[in-house]
Specification:
The protein has two domains: about 100 residues, Tetratricopeptide repeat domain (Serine Threonine Protein Phosphatase 5, Tetratricopeptide repeat), CATH 1.25.40.10; about 100 residues, Serine Threonine Protein Phosphatase 5, Tetratricopeptide repeat, CATH 1.25.40.10. About 80% of the residues lie in helices and about 0% in strands. It has 15 helices and no strands. The radius of gyration is 25 Å and the shape is elongated. The termini are far apart.
């Protein structure tokens, strides 16, 4: 059956290259075969070939929600790439908000990631969109039994790692804001904040505020030498950064070096005029 369908769709893709539906069918068929394939090399070949056909479908019809659905499905079930799967399922929902399978797959992914509130929300959303979708109903009921959760509004407090996976544009500003969110809201996760500030600095080595917040994290965890190193890096970028001197003064004071703390405080006053 697969070979017959594959032959049919591959022939159609050649004879009807401008047909969105032809590329969609061919891409879905390749991905479905790829999911069942045991050989890793063949599996990857089918994945990329199928994805290529789906992208051709999008070139013709850029807002074809079902195509995004199957791209997410491919990343979820062949590559095991949650980030890309989440992205494409959300793209599907943007263009086809009644596509229940997208919500259901998001619920499954978030359950595996350990974000049970999000999983509950998406499983409930699945059934709201299509009450007759039996897989969705079963997933919702089973998750509710396992966790006791019954979330119907989008959770406002999310784990930073989940926010990272959901984001589309992960630039230096994104990681700076994510680290700052932790610093402001949940100081029990300072290790994660440090990771995000470091990522921001990797992407933009002149982002002074990222260095300052990183130094604050080190100070709060009593890693004073690390804080000093980071703050001195700020001053190499901008010798007139008053806030770097403020934090240096606090750090030296906590280390018991009153002389250096006073020197930093004098610089703060000097830069304030």
């Amino acid at each position: 059956m697969w070979k017959n369908n594959l032959t049919l769709f591959s022939t159609d893709a050649i004879t009807s290259p401008k047909s969105c539906q032809v590329h969609r069918h061919y891409g879905i068929e390749l991905i479905d075969i790829g999911i069942q394939e045991k050989d890793v090399a063949k599996k990857n070949e089918l994945f990329y070939k199928g994805l290529g056909q789906l992208k051709l479908a999008l070139d013709i019809h850029p807002h074809f929600g079902e195509v995004f659905l199957h791209m997410g499905y491919a990343y979820q079930n062949i590559k095991g790439n949650s980030d890309s799967a989440i992205y494409y399922f959300n793209r599907c929902i943007e263009d086809a908000p009644r596509q229940a399978s997208a919500y259901s797959n998001l619920g499954t992914i978030y359950e595996k990631l350990g974000s049970q509130e999000l999983a509950s929300y998406y499983f409930n959303k699945t059934v709201e969109v299509n009450p007759y979708f039996t897989i969705g109903v079963r997933n919702r009921d089973n998750h509710k039994k396992r966790t006791g959760l019954d979330i119907h509004t989008f959770p406002t407090k999310l784990d930073p790692e989940i926010i990272e996976k959901m984001a589309k544009n992960k630039d230096a500003v994104f990681y700076f804001k994510l680290g700052t969110l932790i610093l402001q809201k949940d100081t029990t996760q300072l290790i994660k904040a440090v990771k995000y500030f470091k990522k921001a600095i990797e992407m933009d080595f002149r982002m002074e505020d990222a260095y300052l917040n990183l130094a604050s994290c080190y100070g709060m965890t009593r890693k004073y030498n690390d804080a000093l190193e980071v703050l001195n890096m700020v001053l190499k970028i901008n010798p007139r950064n008053k806030f770097a001197y403020i934090l240096l003064g606090v750090t030296y004071e906590r280390m018991g070096d009153k002389t250096k703390a006073d020197e930093c405080n004098k610089m703060v006053k000097k830069l304030s005029y």
